Amino acid sequence: MEQLLENGKNESLNALIKTLSALLFSFLLFSIFLVVIGASPIEVFSYMLQGSFGSAFSVQNTIIMSAPLLLVAFCTALPAKLGMVVIGGEGALVAGGLGAAVAGYAMKDTSYGLAILAMLIASFLAGGIWIGIIGWLKYAKGANETIVSLLMNYIAIAFLNHLVEGSLRDPASLNKPSTHHIGVEHMLGKLPGTDIHYGVILGIAGAIIMYVIYHRSIFGFSVRIAGGNPKAARLAGLSLRKIIILTFFLGGGMAGLAGFVEVTAVHGKANASLAAGYGYTGILVAFLARQHPIAIIPVTLLFGALAASNGLIQRRCELPDATLIVLQGIIFVTIIGWDAIVAKVNFKGLKSTSFYTYGSKFLANPLSYYRGSYKS
Amino acid sequence: MDQNFWLIPLAIIGGAIRVSTPFLFVSLGECITEKSGRINLGHEGSLIVGAMVGYGISLVTGSPWIGIVVAGLAGSLFGFFHGWICGKKGVNDIAMGIALMMLGTGLAFFFGKSLIKPTAPRLSDFSLAFWSATPQIEQAFKINMLFIAGILLAVLLHYGFKYSRWGIMLRIAGESADAGKALGYNIDSIRIFATASGTFCSGIAGAYLSLYYPGSWNEGLSSGQGLMAVALVIFAKWRPLQCLTASLLFGGAGAIGPALQSIGISDGYYLYNAAPYILTLLLIISNKSGKEIGNAPGELSIVK
Amino acid sequence: MTNKVSKYLLVILTILTYSCNSSKDKSAETSDADSTKTTAIGFVYVGAKDDYGYNQAHSEGATALKEMSGIKIYEEENVPETMDAQKTMESMINIDGTTLVFPTSFGYFDPHMLEMAKKYPAVSFLHCGGMYDSTKHPANVGSYFGYIDEAVYLSGIVAGYTSKSKKLGYIAAKAIPQVLRNVNAFALGAQSVDPKITVTVIFTGDWFLPVKEAEAANSLADQGIDVITGHVDSPKVLIETAEKRGVYSVGYHTNQAVLAPKGFLTGAVWNWPKVYKDFVEMHLKGKSIAGLHRGGIKEGVVILAPYGAAVSEEAKKKTESVKAEFSTEGGYSIFKGPIVSNTGKIILKEGEVLRQKDPVLESMDYLVKGVIGKVPSN
């Protein structure tokens, strides 16, 4: 048992070092791109540092930018533990946001605590049911969850627009059709002395709870069995239906909470800005973090850093917005494909050197190098 | 207003022809890829790159057809990369597809900045209904060579998968890699080539968007066509002719919204605009339960 | 280590050295700017700067400011109307030291810009399209907009003369007051030429949907409509599609005449360069920018694009005479009674007038008679 846990820890550390080296390599590739287009890598990277961690403002900016991603990534991460690919975070966030806005308006004249609780529950349920339906369809009809969740995204956004401009519209919202404001006094506050709203705390708390559920409980254990081999799970008497639907529900609920955060901490109402693409970025976050709830936290900080420094780089280096999309693309292609890239490092002359032997073994299995044994 | 009601079915036909072509190409391309046992969600990226490259080449050379070919080649580069790298252990092809989608989109937007203003030579079209005096009918049946090429491709793939040598090789790679290896096939190469062919098609689909309909290059050109087309492949159960019908259905459904509004029915136009997605969802749900993945290639990572 | 390794290391070092050199040049530039007193001004766009439409119009205004001495312009594009907007503005204030910020999209106003205005009372914020209210909003906020419906009204007159089928088409993104005002102005302008003219409006649902806009243009042309215009962020697609279908087109935001050599009639164009220069001069003199700034043809905030080849002399004469009326002392009122909505509701009785500056017009939620289409209602 101890050995298992020990190996598990090794794996995580290995994964961390691999990801970091992949990140560094992707920065190198991006530097080449920058040189080709006539920009200065040193300049861009220094602005990136400045914009993401260079001042109290920047650090807070990074953290705030990562808040919605932290929650919405679970919509992909949790079902992925079952081996299922769900890309419906966008729709669940929108559903959750709508739920929060409606509940908030209904509870407008009640106390703060009651209103927040109502909005929390409403958004969790809205997002959870939206994705839970997909889980049920997968189980009962074998409907492919990737496609159904993609379709549900478009449908959710259509409903959002339809309701926000129609029956739920606040007439005073004029040129930006929105639902009624939930009331300034009912909005989520900020950590004292900072700009960081409590949505970040909610996200971290949610991540920890999901970690406990999926990595430290019997339910989590059965999920991992079911993910690896559904037949074995059935033979062991596990209820696949419960596992699938509950996991989808929880994932959707977390994404719904992201909608809650957007409404209560940022906008105060629901409108078309809820569909800002967080759901799709969340997919990448989940895969980069290899579906691990705690690993999702630093990965979202990475995304937050990129988002926070985006503007500064645009303005100072006079580069278009697309440059940063290229960077993000390079980072993610590199990190996801790192195992392949590393294996391919076999330049002819290089192969016979000790640099290559130790270098590639290090890159493939960093921790074993330090433990003094080559388990390659 | 009611006397114009007949314009609705006409608009649906026109929409089916106009709007379906990109979906058709991407879904056929992804059909090839998935038949070989790989899934590529990155068509959105190769589509946008194809749109940009096609437009740019057409502008520079004055010939839209050269633009289309180069667009396809540019798209296939993504496919080669995706196919190569996903063949390695430890690389998740779904995540890689999404990452490449992001990279392709970024590169296309970046290099396409200077292409937004100028007007490039466009693809021409002709109408099947040239005999008609009514402009609406003539317009609805306007088709473009690419649409015909798409239909031919669907037919070619249909027979090719079943009866040709490469079709069988492809299917073995997709059904059972072990069987293929036993027969001496290089599964990796088959999949790489299949993925590259797939993105060649989506590159062409992108060029269709920028060179014909809507016929303009800018950053909002694609609204998820690449992703949706992948959905259509599974919906069409990996059969090329069904991909054709699915694309036509999807394109036609997309034309309902604006057509209804043009005759004065605009209540709930968001919902009408979501008609293609709702329709596809209903069709997926109404399938016989449990056996959706009956026809799936066995090696496909999402159904293993 | 072998030669190969050293070769790769050399390449990497070269890249870094080269980039060091170029960064040296850039930093020399910035330090020069710092030594003289410059005012930093920030522009935030919701879309791409070169969308041939809304955002480009603003960017052209910003570019015009670069001619002024002692001004440094910071632009950021593709900023969504979420927390990103707040952080962008804050970054411009904190890091770039901007003292005047132009958030150019309506959705930035509440809560994003207001939050920032509260936090940074020393910085001025000029919002495009917002409804400044001195009782509610702080003194470092102002909002500006143009009565572009005046130019749209004039182009409606031109369309009314030119259309042979007496059916016009309007492709709109969303049914918000700014858009409805334009649709109605277009219809009223055309109806002043021939009261039986109809305008069919199609809502695409969002500001930038090229495929839907092309579909809409085709649907309208199918209906026999022979003049198409629209209010979307980038009218490029609808104008090009109209040209392909052989129908006339009317532009919006910027001048799209080059896209439709045969069918372009005229268009409603923003004149932000002039507006921005005026604001910056106010700011440099230390005057407060608070207030609800509005202007139309008279103030030069909006202009009519040059007439296309297809516009008749008669149309030009009539349009020019109405245009001149806008610039007179009393101005010209587009919305004067009797006006009935297309659902039968009486908006203005005979003799009643809504002047351009009347704030009621900024919450318009109806379409006038003769417009085929519906506003989503509660």
Task: Describe this structure in a few short sentences.
Chain A has 376 residues and is an all-alpha fold. In chain A, 73% of the residues lie in helices and 0% in strands.
Our estimate of the beta-strand percent of chain B is under 5%
CATH class of the largest domain in chain C: Alpha Beta
CATH architecture of the largest domain in chain C: 3-Layer(aba) Sandwich
Query: What is the number of domains of chain C?
Result: 2
Quick one: how many beta strands of chain C? Answer: 17
Number of strands of chain B: 2
State the share of residues found in helices of chain C, binned by percent. Answer: 25-40%
Question: What's the helix-strand series of chain C?
Answer: HEHEHEHEEHEHEHEHEEHEEHEEEEE
- The total of helices of chain B stands at 13
Instruction: Point out poorly predicted stretches of chain B.
Output: 289-294
Greatest chain-chain contact: A-C, 55 and 55 residues
Share of helical residues of chain B? 55-70%
Would you identify the CATH H-level superfamily of the largest domain in chain C? Response regulator
CATH topology of the largest domain in chain C: Rossmann fold
Which value, in Å, is the CA radius of gyration of chain C?
A: 24 Å
Indicate the low-confidence ranges of chain C by residue numbers. 19-35
Rg result of chain B: 20 Å
* Major sheet size, sense and barrel closure of chain B: 2 strands, antiparallel
Termini separation of chain B comes to 53 Å
Keywords, please?
heterotrimer, B: 304 residues, mainly alpha, two-stranded antiparallel ribbon, 13 helices, C: 378 residues, alpha/beta, Rossmann fold, 2 domains, 7-stranded mixed sheet, 6-stranded parallel sheet, 10 helices, 39% helix
Describe the structure.
The complex is a heterotrimer of chains A (376), B (304) and C (378). Chain A is built from 17 helices and no strands. With 376 residues, chain A is an all-alpha fold. In chain A, α3 (56-72) packs antiparallel against α11 (240-267) and α5 (89-106) runs parallel beside α7. Chain A starts with a helix and ends in a 5-residue tail after the last helix. The model of chain A is unreliable at 346-351 and 372-376 (pLDDT under 50). Chain B has helices at residues 7-35, 43-61, 64-86, 93-111, 135-140, 145-163, 165-175, 177-182, 187-211, 225-235, 240-262, 269-273, 275-285, and strands spanning 126-127, 142-143. In chain B, strands 1-2 form a two-stranded antiparallel ribbon. Chain B is globular and about 60 Å long. The termini of chain B are far apart. Residues 289-294 of chain B have low confidence and may be disordered. With 378 residues, chain C is α/β, with parallel strands linked by helices. Chain C has 10 helices and 17 strands. Chain C has helices spanning 3-35, 54-65, 83-94, 109-119, 148-162, 177-191, 210-222, 236-245, 272-284, 313-326; strands spanning 39-44, 71-76, 98-103, 124-128, 141-146, 167-172, 198-203, 227-231, 248-253, 264-270, 291-295, 302-304, 335-336, 339-340, 346-348, 353-354, 371-372. In chain C, a hairpin with a 5-residue loop joins β14 (339-340) and β15. The chains are: A mainly alpha (376), B mainly alpha (304), C alpha/beta (378).
